[in-house]
């Protein structure tokens, strides 16, 4: 794959479709009424696992959509924090990366000590 953003656009659009099609299965996750308490508890645990998985997918979808917007505006591949170019190697691995590795690590450090809220967390779901 070459570094041209057209290719990244294709990759990102494919990823978006994949995430959207799995998001549409959200309705399938529902707790059935069961007369057995243990059974119900078991289903509830599975339900919560599925929800947390979906939350991660929703965050990833948001990152992918933001990357597609950056392709539109010509800002793709530029770190949102320091405005340096994100290395192509990193974009090949994580096309929806919004930050260079340095800033990503800084964000993760700040998140770990509780300086960042949920919204910032969503921004860098990669
Ligand atoms: Zn940066």
Characterise this structure.
- There is one protein chain.
- The chain has 126 residues and is mostly helical.
- It has a single domain, classed as DksA, coiled-coil domain (Four Helix Bundle (Hemerythrin (Met), subunit A), Up-down Bundle), CATH 1.20.120.
- Helices cover 63% and strands 0% of the residues.
- The chain contains 5 helices and no strands.
- It is flat and about 60 Å long.
- Bound molecules: zinc ion.
Topology:
Layout: H1 5-23, H2 37-73, H3 88-93, H4 101-112, H5 118-123
Number of helices: 5
CATH homology superfamily name: DksA, coiled-coil domain
Q: What is the chain-wise order of helices and strands?
A: HHHHH
Structure ligands: zinc ion
- From the alpha-carbon coordinates, what is the Rg to the nearest angstrom? 18 Å
Low-confidence stretches: none
Secondary structure tally: strands: 0
CATH topology term: Four Helix Bundle (Hemerythrin (Met), subunit A)
By CATH reckoning, the class would read Mainly Alpha
Name the structural class.
Answer: mainly alpha
The appropriate CATH architecture is: Up-down Bundle
Total number of domains: 1
Largest sheet: none
Percent helix, as a range, is 55-70%
- Rounded mean pLDDT is 83
Shape: flat
Proportion of residues in extended strands:
under 5%
Give the CA-CA distance, first to last residue.
Answer: 20 Å
